[in-house]
Design goal:
Elements (H helix, E strand, L loop, with lengths): L2 H11 L16 E4 L2 E5 L12 H14 L7 H5 L2 H14 L3 E5 L2 H12 L4 E6 L4 H9 L3 E5 L4 H11 L3 E7 L11 H11 L2 E5 L14 H5 L8 E5 L9 E5 L1 H10 L1 H4 L6 H16 L1 H20 L10 E7 L1 H13 L2 E2 L2 E2 L9 E6 L6 H16 L2
Parallel strand pairs: 2-11, 4-5, 4-6, 6-7, 7-8
Antiparallel strand pairs: 1-2, 3-9, 8-9, 10-13, 12-13
Helix pairs in contact: 2-12, 4-12, 5-6, 13-15, 14-15
The protein binds pyridoxal-5'-phosphate.
């Protein structure tokens, strides 16, 4: 047997094999997936804006005006008016002095962290940070110290031990697989006291947290002085693709000049960028959509608790812990058979033995959808 096939067999034997599922309809509260119509409980499109008429028209308009593709990297030839509009729109939406756009949230985190953290600096990184932060830390020239998830005592102990001359605390604001929130006000206090720079990834908070969806700073009443570096994505509540960093003009200028994942890649397509600009404008004009999402989250969490599950969610990401990888995969299949799609999340995305179903709530789910998903979830878990 060749080595590719034997490695695949080992992955299958550990119940960690992944296959692609294919949607033949747009992202929405219900979709056709591998030929089966199901309720979608796995999308990061939290506000359900992927088929929004205004946003789609703006993207089509950009194709008509600029064509497809951008023809080069931002610093060489690919920078077009839509990119400049996007950076102004992100800065305005996030309330920062400036913003810099990337092709994805992944490249934003990798670029920002690796270029900020030079060889004498130390990064304190939460154990459950997203893979893009972990990869940014791996590329950074400085030392990375991982602290226990959301454990500020552990972080404080490590900071006091090392007392770096220059240091960063890096954290997701909403943790992508657990759905819980970082303790940002306390992290900001600690960063101030020890002269560290707080870097927050707002990927799952933008368009989601805060009364008008501006993200974790709005939710916690913090400013960009408290959190000087905020990264994020335009692929979740904002229904496009792309990533960003926002903060001071100097920060963005530095990243523009040093982040390899900004410099050495082709600029995003004008249509993608126009969709992101329109998405931000739409969310800003429709805070009721954010309120609807937050109402659905509260309803769903309460509904699951009534079925006997112990869930404490504040975000649209609702993990249902199973533990065993094989059982979690079976539960996901049972749920799908009942017409609800929510993937099973396993190692290496989460630690071994901590497999789970990861459900995500959308603003466009009806209360009946949420009730149906809760009932099916109970049945699916009972079946394994
Ligand atoms: C917390 C977090 N940061 C960054 C990313 C990467 O964003 P993107 O999909 O735009 O690359 C994701 C997920 O995709 C995420 O969950």
């Amino acid at each position: 047997m060749n080595s590719f096939a034997s490695r695949i067999d080992a992955i299958k034997a550990a119940h960690l094999y992944r296959a692609l599922r294919t949607l033949s309809t747009p992202q929405g509260r219900d979709v056709v997936i591998d030929g089966q119509r199901v309720l979608l409980f796995s999308s990061n499109s939290y506000l359900g804006l992927n088929t929004n008429a205004y946003i789609c028209r703006e993207a089509i308009g950009a194709v008509e005006e600029f064509g497809v593709g951008s023809g080069g990297s931002r610093l060489v030839t690919g920078n077009m008016t839509p990119h400049m509009r996007l950076e102004a729109a992100v800065a305005q939406f996030k309330g920062s002095e400036a913003a810099l756009a990337f092709t994805s949230g992944y490249t934003a985190n990798v670029g920002v962290i690796s270029s900020l953290c030079h060889k004498d600096a130390v990064i304190f990184s939460d154990a459950l940070n997203h893979a893009s932060i972990i990869d940014g830390c791996r590329l950074a020239r400085g030392q990375t110290v991982v602290y226990a998830h959301n454990d500020l005592d552990d972080l404080l102990r490590r900071v006091r031990e090392i007392r770096p001359r220059q240091g960063f605390i890096v954290t997701d604001s909403v943790f992508s697989m657990d759905g819980d929130l970082a303790r940002l006000p306390e992290l900001a206090d600690m960063a101030r006291e020890y002269g560290l720079t707080l870097v927050v990834d707002d990927a799952h908070a933008t368009g989601v947290l805060g009364a008008t969806g501006r993200g974790s700073l709005e939710h916690f009443g913090l400013s960009h002085e408290d959190v000087p570096v905020v990264t994020g994505t335009l692929s979740k509540a904002v229904p496009s693709e792309g990533g960003f960093v926002c903060g001071s003009r100097d920060l963005c200028d530095l990243i523009r000049n040093t982040a390899r994942s900004f410099i050495f890649t082709t600029a995003p397509s004008p249509s993608t960028v126009a969709a992101a600009v329109a998405g931000l404008a739409y969310i800003a004009a429709h805070p009721e959509l954010v309120e609807q999402l937050q109402g659905n989250v509260a309803y769903f969490v309460e509904r699951l608790n009534r079925t006997g599950m112990d869930i404490h969610g504040q975000s649209p990401i609702v993990p249902i812990m199973v533990g065993d990888e094989a059982k979690a995969a079976q539960a996901a299949e049972a749920l799908l058979a009942l017409g609800v799609f929510a993937p099973c999340i396993r190692y290496p995305t989460v630690p071994r033995g901590m497999a789970r179903l990861r459900l995500t709530v959308m603003a466009t789910h009806t209360r009946e959808d949420l009730d149906y998903a809760a009932t099916c979830l109970k049945k699916a878990l009972a079946a394994v």
